[in-house]
Structure formats: C-alpha cells, structure tokens
C-alpha cells in the first residue's frame, strides 16, 4: 500500500485561518498595551503638573481653602 503524496488543500486553509486569528489576537494585545501605557504616562504627567501648580499657588498666597 502506498500513501498518497498529495496534501489536502483544506489543511493549508485551516492553518492559515489559525495563523490569522493568532496574529489578530497578538495585534490587538499590543495595541491595548500601547494605549494603556500612554494612558498611564499622561495620567502621571497631569497629576504631577497639578501638584506643581498647586504648590506654586500656595507659595504665592498661602494654603488653599
């Protein structure tokens, strides 16, 4: 008995579909990570800016009420 040397084309379709899904998940994960890191950086910058501004105001006219 000899085995058939041809490969079923549906094998490549299935492998390509799985690769596409994995690639999409990785792409979305990287995008979400970039957005989260950007959010954290901007949040820290705004917090530091407000703190410095409040300290500057208090140094000019005393503690804020």
Automatic annotation (TrEMBL):
Is Transmembrane found in the keyword set? Answer: yes
Entry annotated with the keyword Transmembrane helix:
yes
TM segment ranges: 12-42
Protein name from the UniProt record: DUF4282 domain-containing protein
Give the classification, highest ranks.
Bacteria, Bacillati, Actinomycetota, Actinomycetes, Micrococcales
Recorded source organism is Agromyces lapidis
Keyword annotations for this protein, in alphabetical order, are: Membrane, Transmembrane, Transmembrane helix
